[in-house]
Amino acid sequence: xxxxxxxxxxxxxxxxxxxxxxxxxxxxxxxxxxxxxxxxxxxxxxxxxxxxxxxxxxxxxxxxxxxxxxxxxxxxxxxxxxxxxxxxxxxxxxxxxxxxxxxxxxxxxxxxxxxxxxxxxxxxxxxxxxxxxxxxxxxxxxxxxxxxxxxxxxxxxxxxxxxxxxxxxxxxxxxxxxxxxxxxxxxxxxx
Length: 191
Description:
Elements: E1 6-16, E2 22-23, H1 29-41, E3 47-50, H2 54-68, H3 70-75, H4 77-83, E4 86-89, H5 92-97, E5 104-108, H6 120-128, E6 134-142, H7 147-150, E7 155-156, H8 171-183, H9 187-190
Parallel strand pairs: 1-3, 1-6, 3-4, 5-6, 5-7
Antiparallel strand pairs: 1-2
């Protein structure tokens, strides 16, 4: 895997509500394969889903089991491959336990702008120049990652800016755009 030192984390907790309260968001079934596919396409190590609700974890596990089963592999062989990259954890601390003993840098994402954010071009160079380190690309759900948590990360990426003022992409869209900007072989990102 080309980017085997990079993993993606999808946080369902902590997340922000529209009112700015810290909440737990629900897992959506589309996120499993619609995030796992670009994780595979851009050759990341794995895809962590952080979901502290046991019933929600059970839904995720059942989907993984189905797509990994003989019936699921027959129905969609590529989906079986991508769900093999998924790991389910209760919280971000459990994700970090998987990287214990290795230098791990946390890279947050947000639709908001604030001082100190890193451009996609800069982050691409940082990752390429530090292949001996682990990188966790952390995406929020709901209305994003709480600011105090974002500020604890090593880096926070600049927001994805559209053509106008409206800025609330689905996490599936944001993952694909961010991974493309960081890891694409297209010439617009490599020059």
